[in-house]
Design brief:
The protein contains 1 helix and 4 strands. With 74 residues, it is α+β, with helices and mostly antiparallel strands. A hairpin with a 5-residue loop joins strand 1 and strand 2. It is globular, with a radius of gyration of 16 Å.
């Protein structure tokens, strides 16, 4: 068994969670799932190119229900 010791300076660093785009509607709004964890989100494009604004952040079931009710392209 090996023991990994985390350097003191790295103990307080924030974890980053890359998000994967699951679906995009005609307005460019995106349904995203996290690469790790369970917090799904809905993003809308920002006025600045390449930026998005997170509208909702919640569990998969609630976010998918909101996406299907209000944001999904029909």
């Amino acid at each position: 068994m090996t023991i990994t010791i985390t350097p003191k300076k790295d103990r307080r660093r924030e974890l980053t969670h890359e998000e994967m785009v699951v679906e995009t509607n005609s307005k460019g709004q995106q349904l995203c799932r996290p690469k790790y964890g369970f917090r799904w989100s809905i993003h809308t494009p920002h006025a600045t190119e390449g930026w998005t604004t997170c509208l909702y952040l919640d569990c998969e079931r609630r976010i998918k229900a909101m996406w299907n009710a209000h944001y999904a392209s029909k």
